[in-house]
Specification:
Shape of chain A: globular
Strand content of chain B: under 5%
Number of helices of chain A: 14
Number of domains of chain B: 2
Order of helices and strands of chain A: HHHHHHEEHHHHHHHH
Distance between the termini of chain B: 37 Å
Helix content of chain B: 55-70%
Radius of gyration of chain B: 19 Å
Structural class of chain A: mainly alpha
Helix content of chain A: 55-70%
Largest sheet of chain B: 2 strands, antiparallel
Strand order of the largest sheet of chain B: 1-2
Structural class of chain B: mainly alpha
Largest interface: A-B, 10 and 8 residues
Oligomer: heterodimer
Strand order of the largest sheet of chain A: 1-2
Largest sheet of chain A: 2 strands, antiparallel
Distance between the termini of chain A: 38 Å
Number of strands of chain B: 2
Number of strands of chain A: 2
Radius of gyration of chain A: 20 Å
Chain lengths: 313, 244
């Protein structure tokens, strides 16, 4: 304890938590969703995950060699690769998965200065890059060799969906997004370990539920809201992507604002947009608003008035 | 002094309007969906640039200093209109695919920038070659960007399929974000090459113009690095702002 206090200028409280510890926690928390994805979609899911992670790690390694600063041991490339793989359909050609990994690390993260400098979540930016580049391959969802619409698309088309299947995860979709139970189990691990807190996912989900209830056209019908919540990447996005340390606001008020913005954007994209899904676009757009949110919600320092003027005696 | 050759070199390499000066970004990003579009846009701009430079240079003793910008615009707009009518008559397909970006050449900042910073204070022949050099540099840059985007986004260059049949086009390169990626990559590549040359002692900056970076004792006219010319007409040192 005593060695944590240093007689020096602030900050006076220091923590021994390092990046690789946090990243390891996230990897462990993603294991239930990963495991369920492999169980649900078969061994090819494992191949997609392995290729994506290998491509992110190799990109980070070679860029580190070029720059003379190896950052691959902080495990952030593994998290990016795993998150990206969980956001891909199982049928994706492996070279596309590898290209996505290269894009995430090289273009979104390293060219902007590496971990901590990236202005967008690398995994989601890569997913959007692939969604625009390969629209057919990225939306070819299948489950048990049955190709079909995702539950969200069916819901948007006005068909009935089986909410229980969606909560368990026996539905078409990307590798890691289908099972709400597995994702929530991972999220509980993260919250119990103190890696994330409930502020962003909580405000995100509550805002989205209110939006869907008001504008969805079905009122606050429990089955409809449950289907909207457990369909698509909402849970994965809310707990694992929106809470990314680099691309979320650091102020507490700002985190609530950020969650609300994400909820509104997701609602707008899902209900008024042409597609059935909108979580990834909502989160990367939210990422872009983070500097503004932080600026507006900057807390007043002790001894200062609101607006930055010093208090008079 | 071999001004014509130096001007051509200046426009193509040393002060390439797209890769070095970063001027005219709007057509650069918007029309380079294919190599053919890039080439057409570049050549059209080159014609307007060379002719307007020539006329502005010839008229530089007549145009009053205070109304020079409107006068430049009138001259440039006349040439753009003439070129557009010619395109409509003889290459309607290109005119259609470039669309609104042809009339927008009027506000292309390369043209106004060269008129202001070179043609207005230099003789006619070097101004003409300055326009041709800058135009060729612009054409070269746009064709490169267009070729890379067409190759990755559609698997073709100038309409010829170059990729194997198994190639899946990366559609994003045909759209706006792809233009930014390709432009950034090409600028980075040419900076990398130039840096390598600089380290090897073959600096591009000092070839041709004989610049010793001693602006106080240098009398070269029209040098874009200088704040004002010898005759006292002040001018901006930096590149012009994008007009649109």
């Amino acid at each position: 304890m005593s060695e944590l206090f240093k007689v020096s200028s602030n900050p006076h409280i220091r923590s021994k938590v390092a990046t690789n510890g946090l990243m390891a926690a996230v990897i462990i928390a993603l294991m239930p969703a990963t495991g369920f994805g492999i169980y649900n979609f078969g061994p090819r899911a494992l191949a997609v995950i392995a290729v994506t992670i290998a491509s992110t790690i190799l990109t980070e390694y070679f860029f580190g060699l070029y720059k003379g600063k190896l950052t691959v041991t902080d495990l952030s490339a593994v998290v990016t690769g795993l998150l990206l793989a969980l956001n891909l359909p199982v049928t994706i050609p492996l070279w596309m998965a590898a290209l996505g990994g290269v894009f995430a690390i090289l273009v979104v993260k390293m060219l902007f200065g590496g971990l901590g400098q990236n202005f967008m979540n690398p995994a989601l930016a890569a997913r959007c890059f692939m969604l625009i580049s390969f629209p057919t391959a990225m939306t070819a969802f299948e489950c048990d060799a049955y190709t079909g619409a995702t539950p969200l698309a069916a819901l948007k088309a006005g068909e009935a969906v089986n909410v229980l299947d969606m909560v368990i995860g026996r539905t078409p979709g990307t590798i890691g997004e289908t099972s709400v139970i597995a994702i929530l189990a991972g999220a509980c691990i993260l919250i119990l370990l103190g890696v994330i807190d409930i502020r962003i996912p909580g405000s995100y989900i509550v805002t989205f539920v209110l939006f869907a209830g008001i504008f969805g056209g079905h009122g606050f019908h429990p089955a409809y809201l449950a289907a909207q919540l457990s369909g698509g990447g909402l849970m994965l996005g809310a707990f694992f992507m929106a809470t990314d340390y680099v691309t979320r606001p650091i102020t507490i008020k700002g985190q609530y604002v950020y969650g609300i913005v994400l909820g509104l954007l997701t609602g707008i994209f899902r209900i008024f947009g042409p597609g059935a899904e909108g979580v990834s676009y909502a989160i990367i757009l939210g990422n872009l608003l983070v500097p503004l949110i932080e600026k507006c919600t900057r807390p007043t320092a002790f001894g200062y008035q609101k607006g930055g003027r010093r208090l008079e005696k | 002094m071999n001004n014509a050759g130096e001007r051509l070199y200046n426009g193509l390499v040393k002060e390439n309007p797209t890769f070095v000066l970063m001027l005219g970004m709007c057509p650069t990003l918007a029309v380079t969906t294919s190599a053919m579009n890039g080439l057409g846009m570049g050549l059209t701009t080159m014609v307007v640039l060379a002719l307007s430079n020539l006329i502005i240079s010839l008229l530089r003793g007549i145009i009053p200093n205070r109304v020079r910008i409107p006068a430049f615009i009138v001259i440039i707009a006349s040439f753009v209109t003439a070129v557009q009518l010619l395109l409509q008559a003889y290459i309607p397909a290109l005119n259609k695919s470039l669309g609104v970006y042809i009339p927008l050449i009027v506000v292309n900042c390369i043209i106004l920038g060269r008129a202001e910073s070179y043609a207005y204070s230099n003789p006619a022949i070097p101004s003409l070659f300055d326009g041709i050099g800058m135009g060729l540099g612009f054409t070269f840059a746009l064709t490169c960007i267009g070729a890379v985007r067409e190759l990755l986004g559609a698997g073709e260059v100038f309409g010829f399929a170059l990729m194997p049949d198994s190639f899946v086009p990366i559609r994003i390169f045909g759209q706006a974000p792809g233009a930014f990626f390709v432009l950034a990559a090409l600028v980075a590549l040419q900076n990398y090459v130039k840096d390598g040359r600089k380290k090897a002692g073959k600096s591009y900056e000092k070839i041709g113009s004989g610049c010793s970076e001693d602006c106080m004792n240098c009398s070269e006219k029209g040098c874009t690095k200088r704040f004002y010319d010898g005759d006292g007409t002040s001018k901006a040192a930096g590149p012009e702002k994008e007009e649109r």
